[in-house]
Specification:
This protein has 433 residues and is mainly α. The protein has 23 helices and no strands. Helix 3 runs antiparallel to helix 4, helix 10 runs antiparallel to helix 11 and helix 19 packs parallel to helix 21. The longest helix is centred in the C-terminal third of the chain and has 21 residues.
Length: 433
């Protein structure tokens, strides 16, 4: 069930925040950034934190290292920026100290950066715009930064990510490949190159990049990006058994990491269940949805997050039961979801698109295409699988032109997700048809 943003998945990936290894050179005229600290301990801690990021180590493990850099030099702007990156956002219903929020730490980094070196200041200012969802404003700053500091890997990595999210694929690839030339020892850049090739439809090359990333992972880690990316390459090609093998291996590795203590492997089991569900094995899907949820009640997740995963269980059950032709049982699951929303009206509002999604799904499976269309129009239009169902509903109600428009939007999208991997093959066939 695609509900609230999954804050805890920051354990697995830090997207568009920090990349590359910091320069330790302090001489003027450097082609790398000069960091404004006289503390060797602060510099070493900052370097360690970024190495951990590049190696996909869990966010809860990185925050204490970043805090160590601040403790060693409270005036080190980049260290405060690291703390801002890994300080978790407040959980709903909690009020953290005003000085201990991501925004407060970022404000401190920006304030201190005014007295920092040119490269450090400009990098923090550019990434602050990225964090504020203003990539168009950040992009020219990052391009100029990469030009002014041609050997600074961090600038290349951040620039490549912003370009990738904006669909400027070839420029993104060029910056990632430049980052590889500067330092190819860590896995994250290969994961990003894998994403590039995946979105270009070169699944063999994407697999090669993801495998290069996995070869460079640190012992005791099981990174989300290259493992899920590798599975997506097989989903696009219709090789579901191979995709399932990747996810099953990932689940086994992930449960042995420290991250599993913070966030249970339910997200992997749900992905396994979904591949079974959308590829003709709804009975197997039911088993895996149940198995995944079993990891939730005893986990360290906050109570509200546990409730969200319970909602996802009802969602998965309902869709699987509908595929099995057990429509009455499927509707009971949808009713349970609506009851959960109604009992929490303020928080529940954000989950209404997901409720419309399951109702639309059940209506499609039951053959009531007009009612399905009514609900799917209210589903999450940023979710490509929701859009796929909407296109199916338009198709089945005779509006082929609108359906074709949506299929084209799916194919042309630049999201890297399981939803895209499940949707693009069908959309391509429909466009050809």
């Amino acid at each position: 069930m695609r509900l609230a943003s999954m804050r805890s998945l920051k354990i697995f990936a830090v997207i568009l925040i920090l990349t590359g290894l910091p320069a330790y050179a302090q001489q003027s005229g450097s082609k790398k950034f000069v960091f404004t600290t006289k503390s060797k301990a602060a510099m070493e801690a900052a370097g360690q934190a970024i190495k951990m990021i590049e190696s996909f180590q869990p966010a809860p493990d990185i925050l204490p290292v970043a805090q160590k850099a601040v403790a060693a030099d409270p005036d080190f702007a980049f260290a405060h920026y690291l703390v801002a990156t890994f300080t978790p956002p407040p959980q709903p219903g909690t009020t953290p100290p005003p000085a201990n929020t991501p925004k407060a730490h970022m404000d401190k980094a920006l304030e201190l950066s005014k007295r920092a070196s040119d490269g450090e200041r400009r990098y923090i200012e550019a990434v602050a715009l990225v964090r504020a969802q203003k990539p168009a404003e950040a992009l020219p700053l990052l391009k100029q930064l990469a030009q002014d500091y041609p050997e600074e890997r961090m600038a290349r990595m951040m620039l490549g990510q912003v370009l990738l999210t904006r669909g400027q694929m070839e420029e993104a690839r060029a910056n990632f490949e430049r980052a590889v030339a500067l330092d190819n020892s860590t896995p994250r850049v290969y994961n990003l190159l894998g994403n590039y090739h995946l979105l270009q439809g070169d699944y063999a090359k994407a697999r090669e990049m993801y495998q290069q990333a996995l070869k460079r992972t640190v012992k005791g880690t099981a990174p989300f990006g290259p493992n899920f990316g590798l599975s997506y390459t097989y989903v696009y090609e219709g090789k579901i058994p191979e995709a399932l093998k990747v996810l099953t291996r990932f689940q086994d590795e992930y449960t042995r990491t420290s991250g599993a203590a913070e966030f249970p492997p339910v997200f992997i089991w749900n992905a396994i269940a979904r591949l079974h569900l959308e590829n003709g094995q709804p009975a197997e899907a039911l088993k895996f949805y149940e198995r995944g949820y079993q990891t939730v009640p005893g986990s360290k997740l906050p109570a509200e997050e546990k409730m969200i995963w319970q909602g996802r269980l009802h969602h998965g059950r309902g869709r699987a039961l509908a595929k099995l032709g057990k429509h009455e049982e499927a509707w009971k699951e949808a009713e349970l979801i609506k009851k959960m929303i109604d009992e929490n009206p303020e928080r529940g509002k954000q989950f209404m698109p997901s409720y419309h999604y399951i109702v639309g799904y059940l209506r499609l499976e039951g053959g009531d295409h007009a009612k399905a269309l009514e609900h799917l129009k209210q589903a999450d239009q940023t979710d490509l699988f929701h859009k796929l169902l909407l296109a199916r509903a338009y198709d089945r109600t005779g509006d082929t032109a609108t359906a074709q428009k949506i299929y084209r939007e799916i194919v042309e999208s630049k999201q890297n997700s399981l939803e895209r991997a499940l949707s693009v093959p069908e959309a391509k066939k429909k466009l050809k048809g």
